[in-house]
Write a structure and sequence with these properties.
Number of domains: 1
Order of helices and strands: HHHHHEHEH
Radius of gyration: 18 Å
Largest sheet: 2 strands, parallel
Structural class: mainly alpha
Strand content: 5-15%
Number of strands: 2
Number of helices: 7
Shape: globular
Helix content: 40-55%
């Protein structure tokens, strides 16, 4: 089963984004809980589990987290993108587009990318980068036999 995580880098408005989603989704997190959440390297739980996750005394390893739901009935990435666009409203949208990066590994299936793309589109984000783990070009294939020329 594929899991979706959200990571916000140091140069983002992470505290404001977490505060925005706390308010918009009624998570009722205290200022202390928001501070603790801000220190976590990534988000990897459904919104309804954030408060209980923050009450844990030991950090839960990533492989034990359920991931952010992105299925067709509950795509919480839409909520995250809404909070991000709310916080970055009125700023240079090209900078926001440069910061958005969707990364998948070779086991990530297309429906996951499709649901993420829909979450972006619902928030009028049309430009972002996608990075996947590449596979070697199959030996004997057309691409193998005729690689693109470097410019």
């Amino acid at each position: 089963m594929e899991k979706l995580f959200l990571m916000m880098g140091e140069d983002t408005k992470k505290a404001e984004i977490l505060s925005n989603i706390n308010t918009s989704k009624g998570l009722n997190l205290t200022p202390a809980e928001l501070k603790k959440w801000e220190k976590t390297p990534f988000v990897g739980s459904p919104l309804n589990q954030i408060k209980s996750m923050l009450s844990q005394t030991v950090e839960i390893p990533a492989n034990k987290l359920p991931g952010i739901p992105t299925d067709s009935t509950n795509n919480e990435m839409t909520d995250w993108m809404r909070s991000i666009t709310n916080v970055y409203a009125g700023t240079d949208q090209r900078k926001l587009q440069e910061m958005l990066l969707v990364k998948g590994d070779q086991s990530t299936l297309y429906p996951v990318f499709k649901n993420i793309k829909q979450a972006f589109k619902k928030n009028e984000i049309y430009k972002f980068r996608i990075v996947t783990s590449g596979e070697a070009v199959p030996v004997g294939s057309e691409l193998y036999l005729n690689p693109p020329k470097a410019n």
